[in-house]
Amino acid sequence: MTATGTFTPRPGAAPLPRMIRAQAALETRMLLRNGEQLLLTVIIPTLLLVLFSAVDIIDTGAGRSVDFLAPGILALAVLSTAFTGQAIATGFERRYGVLKRLAASPLPRWGLMTAKTCAVLVTEVLQIALLTAVALALGWSPHGNPAAVAGLLVLGTAAFSGLGLLMAGTLKAEATLAAANLVFLLLLVGGGVIVPLAKFPEAAQAVLGLLPITALSDGLRTVLQNGAGVPWSDLGILAVWAVAGLGAAARFFRWE
């Protein structure tokens, strides 16, 4: 019998949901404290939205530029946080031995990926709130079903998160830094974010249309600009990328 005021040790791992919540909270604090990360995920999309909405640089078709640009910039925000920022941060965590120490904990590899994806979702909520406020101030008039928008954003986050973690868990940190930034720039130009996909040759359109950034920006634009129903084809493309990316990351991710 244990005496009053004393405690019996209970060695062993905490329940898995509690470990994931704790790791997700830590990852979120680290994301929000990183100044360079905030520049990439918040400042750059906001500046692009304001610049291209105010200055007639690119022909975005009929209607106001902001109605075309706002959905694409929301997709860019997801790309910058879930893919580029996460890949770079995780790559250097791996290089500095942070992930090696986490590997010695009871947290499984998929649990770490789940926690990082949850942290990305929290950051994206703040991003989307800011970008929506800026777009509305510029005269944006969104339409469509909020549930369809939420589904696109969640699937897009899962797809880019899996690809970012796959890159960070297989390449060296310096290679991840270069590759993530290069992919970000290429998808910014060729993913239908700012430049309409119709501006590209037909052969290129067929290939670019299968990219996750194109599916996300096109799906958001279909709902928010055109007021259409659920864009099932875009959701399907994002779902395939999400399953493939997260599955490959869980299979090939290396802690060190």
UniProtKB/TrEMBL annotation:
Main location: membrane
GO MF annotations in UniProt: ABC-type transporter activity
GO terms under cellular component: ATP-binding cassette (ABC) transporter complex
Pfam families from the UniProt entry: ABC2_membrane_3 (PF12698)
Signal peptide: none
Keyword match Amino-acid biosynthesis: no
Claim: Phosphoprotein is one of the keywords in the record: no
Membrane topology: Multi-pass membrane protein
Segments traversing the membrane: 38-58, 70-92, 118-141, 147-168, 175-198, 235-253
Domain ABC transmembrane type-2: 32-256
GO biological process: response to antibiotic
UniProt-annotated location(s): Membrane
Keywords for the protein's UniProt record, in alphabetical order: Antibiotic resistance, Membrane, Transmembrane, Transmembrane helix
Entry-linked InterPro entries: ABC2_TM, ABC2_TM_bact-type, ABC_2_transport, Nod_factor_ABC_transporter
Protein name listed in UniProt: ABC transporter permease
Phylogenetic placement of the source organism: Bacteria, Bacillati, Actinomycetota, Actinomycetes, Kitasatosporales
